[in-house]
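thread: overnight batch results

M.L. [08:02]
morning all. the overnight job finished for the chain we discussed friday. pasting input first so we're all looking at the same thing
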Amino acid sequence: MIDYQEISLKEDLGQFARKACDRHVGVGADGLIIITIRNAQEGIVQFRIFNADGTEPEISGNGLRCAAACLYYHQKINTPRILFLTSAGERECTLIEASLSRYIIRIDMGIPKLTSRDIPFDDGSYHEKIIDYPLSINQKIYPITVVSVGNPHCAIFVERFPARIEWHQLGREIESHPFFPNRTNIEFIRVLNRREIEVLFWERGVGETLSSGSGSTAAAVASILKGLTDNQVTVKTSMGQVLVEWQGQRVYQTGPAEVVFEGRLVS
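M.L. [08:03]
and the structure it wrote out:
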């Protein structure tokens, strides 16, 4: 997480993200977040995120929570609400609870996009919704449910999680499948009951991630669309859980973000 007003970078941000996110010679991270405060009094902040491979996705749910936590931790924003300006549109974050370096934050994740044109998903036909679509991978059919919460997501429901090498390979294949012109994120979902799901994440431009805010939101939306859960879903990930609520048209996500360390960039 970097405040763009505090640094002077001469190189391309995507190139810098690749170097900074490298776990051997850089800081090590799933992504680089660039924040720029537009109006401190009103809590308006520009938000950009770069994946570890240097590509720039539209949005990140976890990234928004982390950015909000960073701003509150350094007391750069004093309003209980922050309006983030992202390439996917405006996203409002609300501070629910603060304790030392740990924060509970609720995010308005916007209105899910369900049509093939909006996601985008292109198999040559128009789809109003994509639920249990028979996607062929290596001569095997996988029923997929596809949505966008500002970025594209492909949900696969399983009764038990496959071996790690298996779902990693499937994640790679689907991420770059020609039906997804902008590539896609993949969620492997196990429904526990009407109010709880468990999810593994393969993130576009990153690979396996232990948690994903937009992925958790998309997994909950897919579960609700299929009628497998209620409209309020606890999403369990490898690093904890978040609450996703689909209220009317909009989806909200509540979860934690914690400052674990900070440093000074020397270039």
